[in-house]
Design a protein that fits this description.
The chain has a single domain, classed as Pnp Oxidase, Chain A (Roll). Helix content is 14%, strand content 34%. It has five helices and 14 strands. The strands form four sheets. Strands 3-2-6-9-10-5-4 form a seven-stranded antiparallel beta sheet, with helices on one face. A three-stranded antiparallel beta sheet has the order 1-13-14, with no helix packed on it. A two-stranded antiparallel ribbon has the order 7-8. A hairpin with a 6-residue loop joins strand 7 and strand 8. The protein is globular.
Length: 203
């Protein structure tokens, strides 16, 4: 089939998210100017550069108690910092619980029963149970086409990795069973990997 998104797809559910998958989940923690901690999962998330290390996530909806955005973006605009917490299979239910639309004065950490622990370099909480966390300084907040769509870019200033997921000096995604977002309401846990050598590796 072929369709133009502006005309609709004619299917029971929108296939776009299912086609662009799997996607890593950026579990973004922030602290508002009022001191309230916020935590929300974003599946439009990825790393975008090595030196300096940089990441991005996109927010595509708004809350009635924020100015045409969500708590994460509002807090980043106010403070200039955020933390990306990576999600393991063991944290799937807690991650899902933090996707609830809660009033901005309610912390998703408490709502989901998660331990809030301080970051080292920024005034922002992180998820203590996460297999890894990236402390970030926001560098750009870019408006995108469409209502409430913005992309947030950040430089990674510090990285936390839980020791139990380091094997022979490498982060083991299968031991952490890293969670990926698929389409619809579907997710996948990484339990098997394979290696491919690049053509230039042998030169």
């Amino acid at each position: 089939m072929f369709y133009q998104p502006k005309d609709g797809h004619g299917l029971p559910h929108n296939p776009f998210n299912a086609l662009v998958s799997p996607r890593p989940i950026g579990w973004i923690s922030t602290r508002g100017a009022d001191g309230v901690a916020n935590l929300a999962p974003y599946s439009f998330f990825n790393a975008v550069a090595y030196v300096p290390p940089q990441v991005m996530f996109a927010s595509t909806t708004a809350k009635p108690d924020q100015d045409n955005t969500k708590d994460s973006v509002a807090n980043i605009r106010a403070t200039g910092t955020f933390c990306v917490n990576l999600v393991s299979y063991a944290l799937r239910d807690a991650m899902n619980a933090t996707s609830a639309s809660l009033p901005k004065e309610v912390s998703e950490f408490a709502h989901a029963g998660l331990e809030e622990t301080p970051c080292m370099l920024i005034d922002c909480p992180r998820v203590a149970e996460a297999p890894a966390s990236l402390e970030c300084r926001a560098t750009q907040i870019v408006p995108l086409e469409g209502a409430s769509n913005v992309a947030v870019f950040g430089e990674v200033l510090g990285i936390h990795i839980r020791d139990e997921y380091l094997v022979d000096g490498m982060f083991d995604v299968t031991r952490a069973e890293m969670l990926s977002r698929l389409g619809y309401r579907d997710y996948a846990a990484i339990r098997e990997v394979f290696t491919l050598a690049r053509p230039d590796d042998a030169r």
